[in-house]
Amino acid sequence: MSNLDREAALSVCGGRGFVVAEPVRELLTPRKVQLGESTEVRRLLPNLGRRMVGAWCFVDHYGPDDIADEPGMQVPPHPHMGLQTVSWLHEGEVLHRDSTGSLATIRPRELGLQTTGSAISHSEETPRSHSRFLHGAQLWTALPEGSRHIDAHFEHHTDLPQVTAAGLTATVILGTLDTATSPGATYSPIVGADLTLARGTETRLPLEPDFEYAVLSMSGEVHVDGVPVLPGSMLYLGCGRSELPLRAESDAGIMLLGGEPFEEEIIMWWNFIGRSNEDIAQAREDWMNGDRFGEVKGYEGDPIPAPKLPAVRLKARGRVR
């Protein structure tokens, strides 16, 4: 999924200097962003107060939207570099095309994982024949320096491992949770999991004390370490936790995101992640000139042009504002 802001701001993320080294309960509120012509998303990362959770650097939550008589998601071809995109659905379908030739229809609880390396372009659209509702999340992880120039590729995993307990089913999207490990490729210590909880469930989820974590609410109401988290909001939890208390006030769905705090400072602008202003400027020039990012074949429509770069260079500001 693309960042379609018409004026994309430069920002520096990463570095351990602003990692909360102890458990906290910091509720993040979303910013509403229009995605294409028909989809509005709630952007949780980057946030006014926090830019990263481990390697997770971008989180959009959308829906549930009634698209029975609508085209649904329509995101034309656009570029990415230096990151992974994670497509995750609770309802609906998304058709993925990219410049490596990949073509896949992603359905609920299936992992669409795009590793961009130094250059890829892709499109995302709701198929013409589709379900009534569209509901999901789009997430990015930052690739570390040693992996950010690898060959671009796409993975589609339809059968993901699960961890179950009374009233709880956890599907492991990336990394390892408890005893279950996702088949999706990762390039830094990270975890992502989708949790379904039945009303009245009280449980404790095992965590890694060296990871920082956040919980994104997808549906229902869950009290996370005593804090009510409602759909479209995210609770940042810091580090130093070996378990996480959860209590479901209704049938609910949440996403657990975590990882070792990302050591490197990165620049994230539009759909690019780099290490310098020059990285970003070159990527923009290449996209606008039709170089490096390839062609998405089969999409009916023009690619998205890049916004203008800001007139000033970015100064490093760390992980939080």
TrEMBL record:
The Pirin C-terminal domain, residue ranges: 193-293
Gene3D superfamilies in alphabetical order: Jelly Rolls
Chain residues that bind Fe cation: 78, 80, 122, 124
Cofactor note: Binds 1 Fe cation per subunit.
Membership in a protein family: Belongs to the pirin family.
Gene Ontology molecular function terms on file: metal ion binding
Keyword check for Zinc: no
Stated name of the protein: Pirin
Keyword Metal-binding (UniProt): yes
Family matches, as SUPFAM superfamilies: RmlC-like cupins (SSF51182)
Classification via InterPro entries: Pirin (IPR012093), Pirin_C_dom (IPR008778), Pirin_N_dom (IPR003829), RmlC-like_jellyroll (IPR014710), RmlC_Cupin_sf (IPR011051)
Residues annotated as domain Pirin N-terminal: 41-140
CDD domains cross-referenced by the UniProt entry: cupin_pirin_C
Cofactors named for this entry: Fe cation
Pfam families documented for this protein: Pirin (PF02678), Pirin_C (PF05726)
Keyword tags: Iron, Metal-binding
